[in-house]
Design goal:
Radius of gyration: 26 Å
Distance between the termini: 69 Å
Strand content: 25-35%
Shape: globular
Strand order of the largest sheet: 10-11-12-13-14-16-15
Helix content: 25-40%
Number of strands: 26
Length: 567
């Protein structure tokens, strides 16, 4: 059955490859899985056609249509529509010759252990979605589990649209999927709105999945993190790669924030450039704002109430001691959420995708839900990453200390709870996560992840294989755990080396007392593209303006700065 499925898929690719010479109009590949779903081939630009089959295709019926008048052979074997061609193997490159084009190569890729999501719209409509994040269109949706069981099907009533901010700028787009009514998918709780995360920053595709799973296990309340599952996405038959299907934050938060409850509030901390232009927000400083997620459709009075609450939280963050009149922070959720951000070294933790909620009436402040971890565990926007830092405490505003988590760390009740949780609960779970669960999850998605690497080669340039990317992830987390153990359990003395960049960003690294800090990057390595820092290799000491010597023994906290050429 497996060989027959590959052969039938091969015939479908032939339709496309034989008719798609550089000088001729392409004939789309069409072959069907399960009698209904259409899958197309994708050409890599180097003359090779790739067919990405879902994990269940080798076990189910696959049919193809070959246009009349086409003659072709693969590996010297003449082909005909409907012909059994079990001699062709997956993941092997074959020569293709045909009567309507020049010779090409063909490779089939078969997935394993991952569900398949088929979303069908009009071709022009999907093009509009990809061109405009705010546009959405009607869609037919079919979801198959990894074994090929059809677990959800709607020929109408669903909609698909764009989502994200920096991730939306990638060619591999993230999407929102809206069902006609709330449904539980792939064993997850019922939700009407689902997010399809593309994970374009993450060569492993694992970071969001393993962190959200971990967060649900240590959750202080229901809805602390959305459920999620891997799927391979096909849009109008075109393979889009490996995605993470998640309950939306809104549906996750519906467990505790009701749209009709005007006493309930929810905010999201984020950089001003990422704010919804049609939403309501409270500016905290030039680097961070609080967007109001609930109450929905705020009246001016409600916005004023939420603004007062946000300002009160900010005052509490900057004040000494645990207490602040009118504010009742939930210590357990703050401590557990802070640990998620710190342990997994979330780059965005100070000022992006950070949710808080509570009651306007009684002043409660809960941290969560958890969201957005593609830039974590060693992935930053720059080429430099270190397990010896706490990104949740970093400063984007030249000393203004914008991080709420850094301020909360100064509260004895929260800090003591964080340290106790790490020692008594998180540490053992983290070791198990790194040594067993991450490798296990990687094994399940390995075939799909390799197909994703082929489909989107521009995002998979740091490592030459999926396995190497996973190995770096696990190595980072092993060293991360060693660092936090030394800092929080063993009580080893560390000093902070802070690096200030001309664009107001501040990076830092923890260095053991008396040791040198040769791992620091050069300024050009951590500057943003186009900032004019190319070739800058020197850090200067803030205390004496002298160039920093990497062999300096660090015996106290130290601040460094970089200078733009010509400044």
């Amino acid at each position: 059955m497996r060989k027959r499925a590959f052969f039938l898929a091969l015939l479908a690719v032939l339709v496309w490859a034989c008719s798609c010479s550089m000088a001729e109009e392409a004939v789309p590949v069409r072959f069907r899985i399960d009698g209904t779903q259409t899958v197309n081939a994708w050409e890599d630009g180097a003359g090779t056609a790739h067919v990405f089959l879902p994990s269940f295709a080798a076990e189910g019926a696959v049919t193809a249509l070959l246009p009349e008048g086409v003659e072709a052979s693969v590996g010297g074997v003449p082909l005909a529509s409907g012909m059994d061609c079990g001699v062709f193997e997956p993941d092997r490159e074959y020569d293709l010759t045909c009567s309507q084009g020049s010779a090409r190569k063909i490779i089939f890729h078969s997935s394993a252990a991952v569900a398949a999501l088929f979303v069908n719209t009009g071709a022009e409509e999907m093009a509009r979605v990809n061109a405009d994040k705010n546009y959405e269109t009607a869609a037919a949706v079919s979801l198959y589990d990894a074994d090929g069981a059809l677990v959800y099907a709607r020929p109408s009533g669903c909609r698909i649209g764009g989502r994200g901010s920096s991730t939306w700028l990638k060619n591999k787009k993230p999407y929102n999927l809206k069902l006609d009514r709330a449904e539980g998918l792939l064993g997850m709780g019922a939700a009407k709105k689902w997010s399809l995360l593309a994970n374009a920053f993450d060569e492993t595709n694992l970071r969001n999945k393993v962190i959200l799973d971990f967060a649900r296990e240590i959750a202080p309340y229901c809805g602390f993190a959305p459920a999620c599952a891997f799927v391979e996405l096909y849009l109008n038959g075109d393979y889009q790669g490996l995605y993470l299907l998640c309950q939306s934050v809104k549906d996750t938060a519906s467990a505790f924030v009701k749209p009709s409850d005007k006493d309930c509030y929810e905010i999201e901390l984020m950089m001003p450039g990422k704010l919804d232009p049609d939403g309501d927000a409270v500016s905290l400083n030039p680097a961070m704002s609080a967007e109001i997620k609930a109450p929905s459709d705020c009246t001016s009075e409600q916005k004023a109430q939420v603004q007062h609450m946000v300002e009160a939280i900010s005052m509490w963050i900057g004040a000494d001691g645990d207490e602040m009149p009118g504010i009742r922070p939930d210590v357990e959720s703050w401590a557990r959420k802070m640990l998620i951000e710190i342990v997994f070294e979330n780059y965005d933790s100070p000022n992006a995708s950070q949710f808080f909620w509570g009651s306007l009436r009684d002043g409660t402040v809960f941290a969560g839900p958890c969201w957005d971890y593609d830039l974590s565990m060693g992935i930053y926007y720059t080429d430099w990453s270190t397990p010896h830092a706490i990104m949740a405490f970093k400063d984007w505003n030249l000393g203004a200390d914008v991080s709420w988590y850094h301020g909360a760390w100064g509260k004895p009740a929260i800090r003591d709870r964080v340290l106790a949780l790490y020692r008594d609960e998180y540490h053992g779970k983290l070791v198990e996560l790194v040594e067993k669960r991450i490798p296990g999850e990687a094994g399940l998605i390995a075939a799909a992840a390799r197909s994703d690497r082929i489909r989107w080669p521009e995002y998979r340039q740091r490592h030459d294989s999926f396995d190497r990317a996973v190995a770096e992830l696990t190595a980072f987390m092993r060293e991360r755990i060693r660092f936090l153990d030394a800092l929080w359990i063993d009580g080893r003395a560390y000093h902070i080396v802070t690096m200030r960049l001309p664009n107001t960003r501040m990076l830092h690294c923890y260095v053991p007392d008396g040791e040198s800090c040769r791992e620091l990057p050069e300024p050009w390595e951590v500057s943003m593209p186009g900032e004019g820092m190319d070739g800058v290799t020197v850090w200067y000491r803030q205390d004496n303006d002298a160039p920093f010597d990497p062999d300096t023994e660090i015996t106290e906290d130290l601040s460094l700065y970089a200078v733009m050429p010509g400044a």
